């Protein structure tokens, strides 16, 4: 996925030189990097990095395995990175993956419903919000994600089918974000939105 190479331990000897390796042991959390939504988020982030953008504060909402948070921590040495999930088991999987990748101490993993956590409120506003979840929660979180973004901040959203993208876009437009980019991979969409 652009500069990133997502792999399981069984493929540790297949990491190509010059790539940012992200080892994922998915177990019971979502986000192995093989799905069009995770791939879309990583490619969108890679494109922003290639353009020279360096967010200082990043949150991965509904982080699952924390693959997106780890991509941020691995490429943004000085950034504050938070990974949150509503599911305690996913948070434990995220913490394990963070440790496997040598990123312990670089990513704060929190159990939270959306953005509802004192640690998230204290860190806001964010320059980048990842939310690779589902259409319903994405729409429900639109006002909160928009409010948590710094001026000029970006949200990379996925977990939605291409045919659901317009309704998600409408919710975020109503919250004050504008579309920067849309990528469809198979039947899945990834949206990059910006707070102007």
Shape: globular
Tell me roughly what share of residues is in helical segments: 25-40%
Spatial strand sequence of the major β-sheet: 5-4-3-6-7-9-8
Please report the distance between the alpha carbons of the first and last residues.
28 Å
The total of helices stands at 6
User: What is the beta-strand fraction?
Assistant: 25-35%
- Radius of gyration, whole Å: 15 Å
Topology pattern, helix = H, strand = E: EEHEHEHEHEHEHEE
Strand segment count: 9
Q: Mean pLDDT, rounded to whole units?
A: 92
This entry's quaternary arrangement is single chain
Structural class: alpha/beta
Low-confidence regions: none
Largest sheet: 7 strands, mixed
Give a written overview of the molecule.
This protein is an alpha/beta fold and 196 residues long. 34% of the residues lie in helices and 31% in strands. The protein is built from 6 helices and 9 strands, in the order ββαβαβαβαβαβαββ. The protein has helices at 36-50, 67-75, 88-100, 118-123, 135-148, 165-174, and strands at 4-7, 20-23, 57-61, 80-85, 107-111, 126-132, 149-161, 177-185, 188-195. The protein has a 7-stranded mixed beta sheet, sandwiched between helices. A two-stranded parallel ribbon has the order 1-2. The relative contact order is 0.15. The model has no long low-confidence stretch (mean pLDDT 92).
């Amino acid at each position: 996925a652009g500069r990133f190479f997502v792999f399981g331990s069984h493929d540790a000897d297949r990491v190509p030189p010059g790539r940012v390796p992200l080892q994922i042991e998915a177990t019971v959390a979502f986000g192995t990097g093989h799905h069009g939504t995770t791939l879309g988020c990583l490619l969108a982030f890679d494109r922003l990095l290639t353009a020279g953008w360096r967010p200082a504060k990043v949150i991965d909402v509904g982080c699952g395995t924390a693959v997106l948070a780890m991509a941020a921590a691995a490429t943004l040495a000085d950034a504050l990175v938070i990974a949150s999930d509503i599911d305690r088991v996913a948070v434990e999987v995220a913490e394990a993956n963070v440790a496997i990748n040598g990123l312990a101490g670089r990513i704060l993993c929190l159990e939270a419903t959306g953005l509802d956590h004192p640690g998230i409120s204290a860190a806001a506003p964010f320059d980048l919000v990842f939310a690779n979840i589902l259409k319903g929660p994405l729409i429900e979180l639109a006002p909160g994600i928009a409010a948590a973004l710094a001026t000029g901040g970006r949200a990379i959203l996925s977990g939605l089918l291409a045919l659901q993208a317009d309704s998600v876009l409408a919710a975020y437009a109503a919250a004050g974000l504008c579309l920067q980019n849309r990528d469809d991979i198979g039947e899945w969409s990834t949206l990059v939105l910006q707070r102007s």
